[in-house]
From TrEMBL:
<dbReference type="GO" id="GO:0015288">
    <property type="term" value="F:porin activity"/>
</dbReference>
<keyword id="KW-0998">Cell outer membrane</keyword>
<dbReference type="GO" id="GO:0009279">
    <property type="term" value="C:cell outer membrane"/>
</dbReference>
<keyword id="KW-1134">Transmembrane beta strand</keyword>
<dbReference type="InterPro" id="IPR051906">
    <property type="entry name" value="TolC-like"/>
</dbReference>
<dbReference type="GO" id="GO:0015562">
    <property type="term" value="F:efflux transmembrane transporter activity"/>
</dbReference>
<protein>
    <submittedName>
        <fullName>TolC family protein</fullName>
    </submittedName>
</protein>
<keyword id="KW-0472">Membrane</keyword>
<keyword id="KW-0812">Transmembrane</keyword>
<dbReference type="GO" id="GO:1990281">
    <property type="term" value="C:efflux pump complex"/>
</dbReference>
């Protein structure tokens, strides 16, 4: 009994999966969530936080230890002598160990500028990942609408097969009573075999498309998943392509680099403290080990650097101009592509109107051909030709319909909607 219940649960579970519905928007969301590149944004954010911590460490005191033992060929000596005073010469072997503490007081805002530069660099890298993932939407469209079209063709071929199987039964009866020749039945059977072959090809094509969609989305789909046809598309260009955001971020990155250059040659003020133990210590005339210390301020300022800063700024200005030309080029290409898709949409709409008229005429022709075949006026081959023309017209109509949906979906992607 338990096995039976378990089997029923499994059966209904499979049935439920088979009826799962998938939308184009869900595919986009799955790609944005599961594509390996999507994980990069969190990694880059963690990297940005760590780099900010590293740069902040430069504000803390730096402590270093130094030790030295040396032997020198000569030492400083007093060039005169005094009565009753003995001055011992310095030892040629000398020893010193020091502990140095340096504290940054002022550096012109270099650390702050470097932190801002790192932050803009990370944002640019994150946006690059967003751009690459966004561009995958075009591939998702190809796979999704390719599956939609193959499913439509599959349904039409199945309908054609059912129709011909019914006609085959009628012809078999007619052959049995000698009303028609056996060749009429064979023509229909050959076409049914041909349809089965086409259905097999469609199944393999669907398997390939499903696999590609699974690789992009990181999701496993049931082969009989129902694909929903999009019914609403935005026509107004209210969105912003992520590439345009990237260009703005790259421009901000250049500006942040300019600020770093401005602070690089600013004066640097540090406080220092040195404590040590050595022989000799600070008193060079004392040949004994002593402790000592020294404290004070240290100022470093490059007064002349041969216009290096000016040239570096000029380089960055050229970088900003390059980014601007890339942005303008992108916008020109974007407008060109949108214009092409507008014409494509208009053309397909006109084709769809003609398709409906052709289908109506072909249906009338098939009904007439069916009556003529029953009366022996035409052969089954003639009837089959008209049925094939009808279903080709229906396939053309479905193809144009899916192409229209694909064109509108691509238009949205190019617009950034």
């Amino acid at each position: 009994m338990k096995k039976l219940i378990f089997s029923i649960i499994i059966l209904f579970g499979q049935d439920f999966r088979a009826q799962e519905q998938l939308t184009l928007e869900k595919c986009y969301a799955l790609v944005e969530k599961n594509y390996p590149l999507a994980k990069q944004n969190n990694l880059l954010q963690n990297q940005s936080e760590l780099e900010a911590i590293v740069l902040a460490k430069d504000k803390l005191p730096k402590i270093s230890f130094h030790a030295q033992a040396s032997y020198q060929s000569d030492v400083t000596q007093v060039p005169f002598s005094m009565p009753n005073v003995t001055i011992e010469p310095l030892n040629k072997d000398q020893y010193r160990a020091t502990l140095d503490i340096n504290q940054l007081i002022y550096n012109g805002g270099t650390i702050k500028a470097q932190t801002q530069l790192k932050a803009t660099q990370i944002k640019s890298q994150q946006q690059v990942a967003i751009v690459n993932i966004y561009q995958l939407k075009s591939q998702v469209n190809q796979y999704y609408f390719g599956l939609l079209l193959s499913q439509e063709r599959q349904e039409l071929l199945q309908a054609k097969k059912v129709l011909l199987e019914e006609k085959s039964k009628e012809i078999q009866t007619a052959v049995k009573f000698g009303a028609v020749l056996p060749a009429s039945e064979q023509v229909i059977e050959a076409e049914i075999i041909n349809i089965n072959q086409q259905l097999s090809d469609i199944t393999l094509e669907q398997m390939k498309l499903w696999k590609n969609l699974e690789l992009l989305s990181g999701q496993v789909f049931h082969p009989t998943t129902i694909l929903s046809q999009p019914t609403h598309f935005e026509t107004e260009r209210s969105g912003i392509r992520p590439e345009l955001v990237l260009y703005d971020l790259q421009n901000q990155q250049v500006e942040a680099a300019q600020k770093v250059i401005e602070t690089t040659h600013a004066p640097k003020l540090n406080a220092f403290l040195q404590g040590g133990y050595g022989n000799p210590a600070l008193n060079m005339l004392n040949n004994s080990f002593e402790t000592f210390y020294m404290t004070g301020l240290r100022l470093n300022w490059t007064l002349f650097e041969w216009n290096k800063t000016k040239k570096e700024k000029e380089v960055l200005e050229l970088s900003k101009q390059i980014i601007l030309t890339e942005k303008e080029t992108f916008e020109v290409n974007q407008n060109r592509q949108l214009n092409e898709y507008n014409f494509e949409i208009e053309k397909i709409n006109a084709q769809l109107k003609s398709d409906l008229e052709i289908i109506q005429l072909r249906e009338k022709i098939v009904r007439s051909a069916e009556a003529q075949m029953k009366n022996g006026v035409i052969t089954s081959s003639d009837y089959l030709n008209e049925v094939t023309h009808l279903f080709e017209s229906k396939i053309n109509e479905k193809t144009h319909h899916i192409q229209l949906l694909l064109a509108k979906a691509n238009y949205q992607i190019i617009s950034g909607i």
